[in-house]
Amino acid sequence: MTKGALTVGVVMPVRNGVRSLAAALDSVMAQVPPPGDIVVVDGNSDDGSAELARSFAGVRVIAQQGRGLGGARNQGVRCVDGDVIAFCDADDRWTSGALALRLDHLVAEPACGAVIGQLQRKLADGDVATPQQGSRLGQTEAAYTPSALLVRRSSFETIGLFDEQLTIGADSDWFVRLVQSQVRLDVLPEVVLLKGVRGESLSTDIPTYRRELLQVARRYIDRRRRGGL
User: Fold this and answer.
1) Predicted confidence (pLDDT) per residue in 105-135, tens digit
2) In the structure, how many helices (H) and strands (E) does the chain have?
3) Cβ 51 vs Cβ 44: under 8 Å
4) Containing domain of residue 134, as a range?
């Protein structure tokens, strides 16, 4: 996709996500116009995810070299082409018009470095949510998650890569760094993402999640004391 001389590349990490991968790719490729580059980073899937992704014309599939979701995102960012970087996880789906909506905003607001919209949580195909997850299904909330993000490459470089040492908190850590930076983040009122919920998702590992979020919080406080990134 090119708009106002901005090109868009999409990074899609996947690991054994064959049940939902096609729907995620369809939602990205159905955008009008579609993104200029789509890179699927396959984390050593053994369920046919990589083969399925390769069956989509125009999709590039690369094998993940490191470990973890943060590592997959970072590798994808290094490989994807585009002035603007977008993400869509294999469990998620973009809503119709989500790409044009966010990209139009970046074109109209040159001072804006990153933009997100709203999300609604949906149950992943063939899955069962935990009671805590189920209580949030269908609710609309600000989408502080990579799958809803459009970020100028220059702004991403200012914030830096995802922390590959964090297994669950890498996304939260990145958004906290964004909010603390001088990069302007705008939040649109429209729903741009249907976020997949899985009962066995990483966030259900409560002890690790709490430990890593505490680490993210400590980093936030340390940066405030130092006066920024």
Assistant:
1) 999 999 999 999 999 999 876 554 444 545 5
2) 8, 10
3) no
4) 2-226
DSSP designation for 34 = P
Cα–Cα distance between 92 and 218 in angstroms, integer?
A: 30
CATH of the domain at 39: 3.90.550.10
What would the two tokens of residue 28 be?
A: 């990205």
Q: What is the 3-state secondary structure (H, E, C) of 77-105?
A: HHHCCCCEEEECCCCCEECCCHHHHHHHH
DSSP 124: P
- Residue among 216, 114, 117 at smallest CA distance from 162: 216
Q: Distance between alpha carbon 154 and the CA centroid of its chain, in Å?
A: 17
57 burial class (0-12, 13-18, 19+ CB within 10 angstroms)? exposed
Q: Give how many domains the chain has, as a whole number.
A: 1
- For the four alpha carbons of 94, 100, 104 and 107, in that order, the dihedral sign comes to positive
Q: What are phi and psi of 139, to 5 degrees?
A: -75, 145
DSSP H or E stretch at residue 148: none
Exposure class string for 111-147: b at 16+ Cβ within 10 A, else e: ebbbbbbbbbbbbbeebebeeebeeeeeeeeebbbbb
Checking 61-67 for CB contacts under 8 A at 24+ apart, the result is: 64/13, 64/15, 66/164, 67/43, 67/164
Residue-wise pLDDT for 26-77, tens only, equals 999 999 999 999 999 999 999 999 999 999 999 999 999 988 999 999 999 9
